[in-house]
TrEMBL record:
<dbReference type="InterPro" id="IPR016030">
    <property type="entry name" value="CblAdoTrfase-like"/>
</dbReference>
<dbReference type="InterPro" id="IPR036451">
    <property type="entry name" value="CblAdoTrfase-like_sf"/>
</dbReference>
<dbReference type="Pfam" id="PF01923">
    <property type="entry name" value="Cob_adeno_trans"/>
</dbReference>
<comment type="similarity">
    <text>Belongs to the Cob(I)alamin adenosyltransferase family.</text>
</comment>
<dbReference type="GO" id="GO:0009236">
    <property type="term" value="P:cobalamin biosynthetic process"/>
</dbReference>
<dbReference type="GO" id="GO:0008817">
    <property type="term" value="F:corrinoid adenosyltransferase activity"/>
</dbReference>
<comment type="pathway">
    <text>Cofactor biosynthesis; adenosylcobalamin biosynthesis; adenosylcobalamin from cob(II)yrinate a,c-diamide: step 2/7.</text>
</comment>
<dbReference type="InterPro" id="IPR029499">
    <property type="entry name" value="PduO-typ"/>
</dbReference>
<keyword id="KW-0808">Transferase</keyword>
<keyword id="KW-0547">Nucleotide-binding</keyword>
<feature type="domain" description="Cobalamin adenosyltransferase-like">
    <location>
        <begin position="3"/>
        <end position="165"/>
    </location>
</feature>
<comment type="subunit">
    <text>Homotrimer.</text>
</comment>
<dbReference type="GO" id="GO:0005524">
    <property type="term" value="F:ATP binding"/>
</dbReference>
<protein>
    <recommendedName>
        <fullName>Corrinoid adenosyltransferase</fullName>
        <ecNumber>2.5.1.17</ecNumber>
    </recommendedName>
</protein>
<keyword id="KW-0067">ATP-binding</keyword>
<keyword id="KW-0169">Cobalamin biosynthesis</keyword>
Amino acid sequence: MKIYTKKGDKGQTQLIGKRVAKTNQRVEAYGTVDELNSFIGVTINALESEKVADMRQELLTIQHELFDLGGDLANVTAKKEWSLSMESVERLESRIDEYWAEAPELRKFILPGGEPAAAHLHVCRTVARRAERLASAIADEHEVSASALPYLNRLSDFFFAAARAVNSRAGKEDILYARSKDVFK
């Protein structure tokens, strides 16, 4: 089997249910989810310390869920069978709470950085936010799974909390934004 099919040479691609332009909102959304998945792969490799072994496993689970979400976003058939469930959202919420409790109290905005793995997690956070915006644009006009938007919203929070936990476990302080007033109370 060859990897190239030549079917996309004229700017078209296949969704689940119909052929569309590669500029279609759904293609942009699931492409961004795929980009996020790739950044997570890089992040897993940056989480070298045994202090963060739990995060490596958690990120691997998220990679599988993102594949499910990409399929859900590509589904334009009349019969919707969603792969991503609200249980994934609930699991993220639990992990967010656990990671958040590990880091010092936060009152000011912080800059992405600290440990290299924390910086990678911040990149994941921003890509997750972009994916959420793109999925929201689709949801404005079309049906998406009930878990898609909450999942992407929690996922960016997960990356933020995980980045802070990585820094905390490494004994590094978050980098405070110099001109931040107290914003978190």
